[in-house]
Design a protein that fits this description.
alpha/beta; eight-stranded mixed sheet; 13 helices; 8 strands; 38% helix; globular
């Protein structure tokens, strides 16, 4: 019997949802949605990245659901959301809007967080009226808006056409990843996590990533290879915090710094020493703390009481 696509014990095992539902996107795609925590509490919406699932946010859900209503959903083709006929940035935006409409009352606002492709989802949706209605603030984790393949440093080669071409082929490979083994864990850790990542965190990420169907992984890789959401960044007008690992090889720190410089209302850039691309798993306390700060400032506290925005907040020590 094959192992489930997530760990089943410990901090990174996904907790049971208080409620599950299906949100229907603009093209009819059905999206698995989970709601955790008490009704009426400050709302946080979590959008995961490429090859991941709601299980990726297990640590944040456990940390926040005591006093927040945490909404997490599977991107189309991932987790328990079926594969779709089309993939693209418009689909990402449509899907997020569908989740917001299915889980939030009219006029209700939430902090919306996205990791990697989930952050790109937030950028893609920035101009949508329903996003503007519901977004009080945003958190962008380990993400970028363009030039993803050209600036990835997964391959230890000089920047240029050769590295870009090989990286595109590697990320878009149609081959199944196969079972999780010591060798595949080592590859995933090198490509996506910091060198000091603990074994339980590597295992949690490996199980999730290996659970993504090869066809879905490849289809989304083509979207990411041609990504250009620079206009979406400029249109993301809500207060937005940015988090990145300094050892991120998929979306290196240059992306986060560029986002922080261009966002209309950047309220902090956090660079995590020793962390790679999987920041919600590698540095769960830092990500949960950022979400709590955003809800405190923009959902539960009067707007006049919000402190002044900061331009950079660099965490210099590795989060345990």
């Amino acid at each position: 019997m094959s192992r489930p696509p997530h760990v089943t014990a410990g901090r990174y095992a996904p907790p049971a949802a208080a409620r599950e539902l299906v949100a229907v996107s603009a093209d009819g795609s059905r999206l698995h949605v989970e709601v955790h925590g008490p009704e009426g509490a400050p709302a946080v919406v979590l959008s995961h990245g490429w090859t991941c699932s709601t299980a990726f946010w297990a640590a944040q859900i456990r940390d926040l659901a005591h006093d927040h209503r945490v909404i997490a959903y599977d991107q189309r083709g991932h987790g328990r959301s079926p594969a779709a006929a089309s993939y693209g940035t418009d689909a990402l935006a449509d899907d997020l809007v569908a989740v917001l409409e299915a889980t939030l009352d009219r006029g209700e606002r939430a902090v919306i967080a996205g990791h990697s492709m989930g952050g790109m989802t937030v950028m893609a949706a920035a101009g949508r009226p329903r996003f503007t209605e519901h977004a009080a603030a945003a958190l962008l984790c380990s993400t970028g808006s363009s030039r993803l393949v050209a600036e990835a440093t997964v391959l230890p080669l000089r920047p240029g056409r050769a590295r870009t071409r090989i990286t595109r082929g590697l990320l878009g490979s149609p081959a199944p990843l196969g079972p999780v083994t010591p060798a595949t864990r080592a590859v995933l850790k090198y490509a996506t996590m910091g060198p000091g990542s603990a074994p339980d965190r590597v295992e949690a990420c490996a199980r999730i990533v290996h659970g993504c169907p090869a066809g879905v992984r490849r289809a989304w890789s083509h979207v990411l290879a041609g990504l250009d959401l620079d206009a979406g960044v400029a249109g993301l007008a809500v207060p937005t915090a940015v988090i990145v690992g300094r050892d991120d090889r998929l979306t290196p720190v240059v992306h986060a710094r560029r986002l922080a410089a261009v966002l209309p209302d950047c309220v902090g850039l956090t660079e995590l020493t020793g962390m790679g691309h999987m920041t919600p798993v590698e540095a769960p306390e830092a990500v949960s703390s950022a979400l709590r700060e955003l809800t405190s400032r923009y959902l539960t506290a009067p707007a006049t009481a919000a402190p002044a925005a900061t331009t950079t907040d660099t965490e210099k020590e590795k989060t345990p």
